[in-house]
Specification:
The protein is an alpha/beta fold and 646 residues long. The protein has 23 helices and 20 strands. It folds into 3 domains: 26-208 and 581-605, GAF domain (Beta-Lactamase), CATH 3.30.450.40; 211-292, no CATH class; 333-497, P-loop containing nucleotide triphosphate hydrolases (Rossmann fold), CATH 3.40.50. A hairpin with a 3-residue loop joins strand 6 (215-221) and strand 7 (225-231). Residues 1-16, 296-320 and 570-588 have low confidence and may be disordered.
Length: 646
Amino acid sequence: MPGARPTTHAAVRTSAASIADLFSTQRINLEHSWRRCIDRYGLDPSAHQHLSSLSRSELREHSEPLDEVLVLAREELDYVYAPLADASFGVSIANMTGLILSYRSPQDEGYVSTEREGTLWAEGVTGTNGVGTCVLERRPTQVFQKEHFFRDFSFLSCAAAPLLSADAEMIGVLNFTSGNPALREDTFRLVSGLAIKTAERLSNQLFARRFQSRTILKARLGEDATLLIAVDDDQNILGANQAARLWMNWRDGAVKAQSMWSVFEVERPGERLQSGPLLLQREGGTLAFEVRVADAPRFVPAPAVSRDRQIAKPAPRDATHTPSVADCLGSDPRLARSLRVLTKVSGSKLPILLLGETGAGKDTMARAIHAEGSRKDRPFVAFNCAAVPETLIDSELFGYGAGAFTGARREGNAGRLVEADGGVLFLDEIGDMPLILQTRLLRVLESGEVSPLGAGKTRHIDVQVIAATNHDLRQRVAGGTFREDLFHRLAGVVIDVLPLRERSDMREVVDAMIARVGSERDLRLTDGAMAALLAHSWPGNMRELKFVLQRAVQICDDDLITSEDLLLHSGLSGGTPTAIAPPSFAADRPSTAREAVASAERELIEESLARHRGEIDAAAAALNISRATLYRKLRQHGLRARDFTR
């Protein structure tokens, strides 16, 4: 059991470094994972992978232990889902076997079928990946495209972070995944930071729910983490989240009740704790806590200290406002002509080509054009030409008939072109479309007719096409990778979407974005924060700005965003990953999802029993299941708790 003990200055520095490592976005060394895949699991990176799934009833059994997490996650992820969807990211939650229990993604882009519920991503089965490697490393894990062990998964980018119980035991994985092969690494880093902070918030919500009837002390340790400590009416410590445990040099597991005044170097006060700020001292420094007693409605924030003195003008409040074409173009005079042209052609059959850097807002612009045009009551169908494997673009875009090929849906697939009939088809990343499919697309645009694969009939469609790319299509035409006739067919109206660093209306853009991401909060920016935003180069453009402000909204105090809250130049450093013994998958590797999950589950139970020396209560708590469930699973796997008591 953990216990309090005096700490030296060196120990405090070590704890602070550990916390920085815990919440760092620095990429872990994946060489260890690749070595495990080759030497221990005997995997071949060139082998083709097929992921089978559990049935709904089987998945339900594995989901029950994390029901509370899944419910909380839905509420929390509603807050960050919009910017994730804008960046073509889906989000999944997996248990400690690497089994995907929940997956949510925009169906039009970024959808990754391999992430569907019921698929298993244990490292011993699917090689180096965000979920499975995070389970073993027990820390945030980012796997970018070709860093995945198997080539079949090299189009994926995964940012995974541990989910922790109230006792700081890892109980699952939060994973943000994109299937966009054109994803930029700077955008991926931003998403990785958001994954870590979201997982931390979810874990802290589990802690707060567990101790909701107790007094909770809360503190921020620099920019790295939130410390939570739960105490009873006699001021005995009952629980601490992982950041607090690291700060106090405590191990994971249930906390042995002890007086908080044996931990902090201060005389015990003569009266009960009251809601509000409280300064507590340990060797190595003083920390400001916020106290929330059980009958108080919310945390009362301690006074914020900032180096930024003057407060900028409050951002306009209209969180429900959907950006219009005028909003997207802004007040930069160079874009006034574009606004005039788009106002006249929106809703016509004239195609529109949007050119601009990744993250500049082309998708938002396309949706605004549709919303303001004469086709606004008809479908808006988006298709990302870079996010879908080349072998699937044909069937997904043009459709197919029933039984057209092995694995096809029984009822066939209408295809995105037919789905957009009467409305707008948005072809994002058109510059990445394969040449052979460019020929088919040109034929459809010229004739207005589409022939789904194996359907045997032609259908006439009426669509306005809006295409977008971050490539220089003229250079691609000159290089022979893009058809010149298709370029001219798409370029009815060409709009250059300016990169954020070149816009003269940057202040207005920031104010509008604050209103979008801040919901109903009365958010304000300090002058220092605004200056930092104006000075940044914004390689990720509007997408990066949204993530930066979304993150700042989550961590700022008193609805006041300072330059420190922006984390534009965060110096957090990572450390050496904790050595975790990899599971010993059997030589005869499982061939089905059911067998693979059973194998991974057995290893997880064995690891928990070994760590807790065969104590059923402790092992069940660590696994987030009841004693009865653990006994039942022991029988299923032929295990005995007493074999782990040595």
